[in-house]
Amino acid sequence: FSGAGGGNDIQWCFSQVKGAVDDDVAEADIISTVEFNHSGELLATGDKGGRVVIFQQEQENKTQSHSRGEYNVYSTFQSHEPEFDYLKSLEIEEKINKIRWLPQKNAAQFLLSTNDKTIKLWKISERDKRPEGYNLKEEDGRYRDPTTVTTLRVPVFRPMDLMVEASPRRIFANAHTYHINSISINSDYETYLSADDLRINLWHLEITDRSFNIVDIKPANMEELTEVITAAEFHPNSCNTFVYSSSKGTIRLCDMRASALCDRHSKLFEEPEDPSNRSFFSEIISSISDVKFSHSGRYMMTRDYLSVKIWDLNMENRPVETYQVHEYLRSKLCSLYENDCIFDKFECCWNGSDRQVSFSSTHTIVMTGSYNNFFRMFDRNTKRDITLEASRENNKPRTVLKPRKVCASGKRKKDEISVDSLDFNKKILHTAWHPKENIIAVATTNNLYIFQDKMN
Amino acid sequence: MFVRGLKRKCFDGEEDIEGTLAGIKAIPSYNLQRQSLLDMSLVKLQLCHMLVEPNLCRSVLIANTVRQIQEEMTQDGTWQMINTQSTGQACLDRLVSTDILCRSSREQAEGKHVPGYSAFNKDFEGDQAQDSSETMSTASSVQAPRNLQSNVWEMENPQENKGNFQKSLDQIFETLENKSPNSVEDLFSEVDNSYYDLDTMLTGMMSNTKMGHCDGLETFSSPTTPASNSNCKSDLNELDHIVEILVES
Fold first, then answer.
1. Is residue A3 part of a domain?
2. Which residue stretches, if any, does this entry annotate as coiled coil (chain A) (predicted)?
3. What is the domain partition of chain B in residue ranges?
4. Torsions phi, psi of B34, nearest 5?
């Protein structure tokens, strides 16, 4: 990664950037989630204004073998609207917290999108032909006077300009008192879970008026509340298994076969605290902001404020690997607490399954974001890591991105950036990796960057 | 002799905060930091968005931090029960809190933006007054936070120090009383002026109903609870409460 490797390391190049150019960011345009579908052909983003924008990859141009298809806008729709809870005199934000794609079963595409309170199943379908030649209707839809019909013909389908329609097929509402932070589709492709701060519910995709509560950590006395659920995910292969993470840095694995209410975990993953690093901020930075199973299901990855940890599901007492994302922030925690950055929820992702990084080896790489529009990748095989920047300055296609380095202390070398110069308003919280190829989508505040590896 | 003059020194931004003043006044320095962290945390708990429900995870984490500090201060013996409050300043506080609560969340959010984290990167104590008041002044309450900060310095006057902590608690009670983070029943919880214990304060924020409808009505009719009458939003919420009661009965 750092350039020292041979031909095995990925060289990331700028491919595209989507979104407004100006620095004045409209709040509604802030990207809040990014997700590739199962084939990688579609890339969905959700924003604070409740909109979903789906990009589609162009079919690969056979003559231009040195680049993959570009992503262009395929569909845009308003998924959620702002609502008002009259009971509490509070607004319900329309911000899209998560999007999850269903695997494709027919010509249409389906995705789940959620805001703080309501989950919706959207059907995205194409229409590229329409019937023409009706006997009783004109082409514009007006009905003809039957007495003018002298011959009969059979209507035929004729091609038309492609139209992509999004329609809400299911609305799953009124099941969450607290704010939804996660949705996860089960490997049975029939059920899914939704998690809020204190509860997790199980739904059937066909049934909207009922959901089953499978986890409830709300204390009888809210005075005793000290821990909340921060993320949840189904196991990729075992349809009875899921995990949820907490604000205290623990991950619980639950088996739905054990009991209807999975309040007792099957496994509890927690790393003992390092006493030498203890401070008043220890708990806050241990809070897990994202949890993701590996494609095989053998491992899971968690993201807390300063690090990414890889856990083996067979070992509960500590992670098998820990990667420091921005350890230089540890001495700045008080400032980051003051400006609330310490509560930023960074996500993390795995590279696609069984993909080849180079001709000769298959690597597992994990990716996560940081500040100053930096994002980091850790190669689990070579143990090398790289820091890259999502910036319009590097926006020439096929230009290899230059690795970045933050100078934590001491003399700053040329091209290094000192910690004090970092822009904490430029944070990369959401990243996604194409399921099959070396293409990544990285969201800055209001722009979506697409990078791909240099093809020779 | 002003503590501030004593402690101010040239600070290399890269040094660990706790490394400064090593040996000279290590213990007060830690106490000041801790007190400042406590004050900051209380302000954070108080300044919730008015229109949108506050982030529960963030609130819980801040509350846990406050609890941690309280536990440590209790062990140190620096935590004392607060007995009285000066009424004159209390009135000011209520006005101040009214101002906070009447501002839109956008105003608060915009004003709250701190230019750079480096404000806290310098000598923690030396610049604290200015930097924190930058942060705090966004809350628009001019009087109380400045009092908070200026009194942090007067180590010889612990009584006043606690008095200022009391003010911040009051502000939180008023906020809690007029907002319902999680449950409608929160609005029914009574705010008692003898409520100085941190646990009870946190209780007020997190708890479900502790009183029945009748008690809630008594709270409304009672003019003696000072905090409940001062807020500009209280009328609106009282109406909501009454409607709630009527609907449920």
1. no
2. none
3. 32-80
4. -65, -45
